[in-house]
Amino acid sequence: QVQLVESGGGMVQAGGSLRLSCAASGRSFSSYAMGWFRQAPGKEREVVAAISWSGDTTYDADSVKGRFTVSRDIAKNTVSLQMNSLKPEDTDVYYCAARSPTIWGPGLSRSSKDYNYWGQGTQVTVSS
């Protein structure tokens, strides 16, 4: 059974940092592009960051550019999101996602519709 499990969420004061991790099991995701998304109640899921299968190419949403960094450890089948200088508006549920190259090709994507596997989400709360 394929699973993506996020960890590392929690509550932090504005200006603080958190590191989210996503552990994949059930298969190797070494050829999959991976993404981090977030969603607030009543809103659409939006991309935060994405990374190519090799880790050579990354994308950061404008709202997090310079503050968040996505990375992956192919050998460990994990993807991480380092979040610094957190703001109250970063409060959301954060999701890890995997994008199949056999369906979508090798590139990364900013659209949640282009991802096949999803984690259960982890809550991030930033207090002012």
Kindly summarize this structure in a few lines.
The chain is mainly β and about 130 residues long.
Topology (SSEs and partners):
Blueprint: E1 3-7, E2 10-13, E3 18-25, E4 33-39, E5 46-51, E6 58-60, E7 68-73, E8 78-83, E9 92-99, H1 101-104, E10 117-118, E11 122-127
Parallel strand pairs: 2-11
Antiparallel strand pairs: 1-3, 3-8, 4-5, 4-9, 5-6, 7-8, 9-10, 9-11
How would you describe this protein?
The chain is mostly beta strands. The chain has one helix spanning 101-104; strands spanning 3-7, 10-13, 18-25, 33-39, 46-51, 58-60, 68-73, 78-83, 92-99, 117-118, 122-127. The strands form two sheets. Strands 2, 4, 5, 6, 9, 10 and 11 form a seven-stranded mixed beta sheet that branches. Strands 1-3-8-7 form a four-stranded antiparallel beta sheet, with no helix packed on it. The longest helix has 4 residues, at 101-104. The chain starts with a strand and ends with a strand.
N-to-C order of helices and strands: EEEEEEEEEHEE
Share of helix among residues?
Answer: under 10%
Sheet of most strands: 7 strands, mixed
Rounded radius of gyration (Å)? 14 Å
Report the span from N to C terminus.
Answer: 40 Å
Name the structural class: mainly beta
